[in-house]
TrEMBL record:
GO terms for biological process: fatty acid biosynthetic process. It comes from Paenibacillus taihuensis. One of its GO terms (molecular function) is [acyl-carrier-protein] S-malonyltransferase activity. Keywords: Acyltransferase, Transferase. Belongs to the fabD family. The active site is at residues 91, 201. This is Malonyl CoA-acyl carrier protein transacylase.
């Protein structure tokens, strides 16, 4: 029996104008983005549709913007009668997955990710943290290199284990620079510094996690109606209390995306529906297993093509 997973993208998938076509054509989608403006008390929609790109790229704007567009597209998809057996999201995308699973209300989620973005930006002074994508290295070899560099230069850790041959590291600027310089020791073909506003998914984010935990303590979290594959564990979670604690932990823990996708495939998932801006997750999933079916629902045009 084939199974379906809905998956939701995270930071880096944003683009000015994303979701505008579905906002203009689908009442339920428009209601979601209007609700985001209302919940946040400013015109997030204007930043999403008109930019400028610099403003959309600010973490505290990017996170609610991507969430709003993902859920707007999810609302439009509901007419197609697709129901997921599992949901998952990459980093920030986990919040979209939790809304899809009925664990968080959209309004609570959008306010929470706005705060999450602010806390992540504030956790480490500008210029002191960094991230880099490491291409071609094995996970164990890269983890060993990070430990060696951390002891000599400054903390650097695995942040996103995305797919075979693509791992993102995060930490102090000096630590990440050490991996850039010594990447070949771990078998890396290339190490590409990323344009980010902080060392996300590293232990340097613990101050952000503590503040986020306080916000989450006052948010209504319900048991998930559909199993959510947690970034921290790459395993399903449905209990409200576990979801709450994992969301705080997620900020400073590596995103186990490759393991999450492998787990879903082991459970019989053969169709992944990527809901949100871009096709980042489709690319990662194909590198994990070429045989699965992937549908990217990122526009009105893509929605029209959904037929299973």
């Amino acid at each position: 029996m084939s199974k379906i997973a809905f998956v939701f993208p995270g930071q880096g998938a944003q683009a000015v104008g994303m979701g505008k076509d579905v906002y203009e054509a689908v009442d339920a989608s428009r209601a979601i983005i209007d609700a985001a403006d209302q919940a946040l008390g400013f015109a997030l929609s204007d930043i999403i549709f008109n930019g400028p790109e610099e403003k959309l790229k600010q973490t505290a704007n990017t996170q609610p913007a991507l969430l709003a567009v993902s859920i707007a597209l999810l609302e439009a998809l509901k007419d197609h009668g697709l129901k997921p057996d599992f949901v998952a999201g990459h980093s920030l995308g986990e919040y979209s997955a939790l809304v899809a699973a009925g664990s968080l209300s959209f309004e609570d989620a959008v306010r929470t990710v706005r705060a999450r973005g602010e806390f992540m930006e504030q956790a480490v002074p500008s210029g002191q943290g960094a991230m880099a994508a490491v291409l071609g290295a094995e996970r164990e070899a890269l983890a060993a290199l990070c430990a060696s560099v951390s002891a000599e230069a400054g903390a650097v850790e695995l942040a996103n284990v995305n797919c075979p041959g693509q791992i993102v590291v995060s930490g102090t600027a000096a630590g990440v620079q050490g991996v850039v310089e010594r990447g070949k020791e771990a078998g890396a073909k290339r190490v590409i510094p990323l344009e980010v506003s902080g060392p996300f998914h590293s232990s340097l984010m613990k101050p952000a996690a503590e503040k986020l935990a306080e916000v989450l303590a006052s948010v209504q979290v319900s048991d998930a109606a559909v199993p959510v594959i947690a970034n921290v564990t790459a395993k399903p979670v449905t209990s409200a209390e576990e979801i709450r604690s994992l969301l705080a932990e997620q900020v400073y823990s590596p995103v186990q995306w490759e393991d999450s996708v492998k787990y879903l495939i082991e459970q019989g998932v053969d169709t992944f529906v990527e809901i949100g801006s871009g096709t980042v997750l489709a690319g990662l999933i194909k590198k994990i297993d070429k045989s699965v079916n992937i549908i990217s629902v990122n526009s009105l045009e893509a929605l029209k093509a959904v037929a299973l």
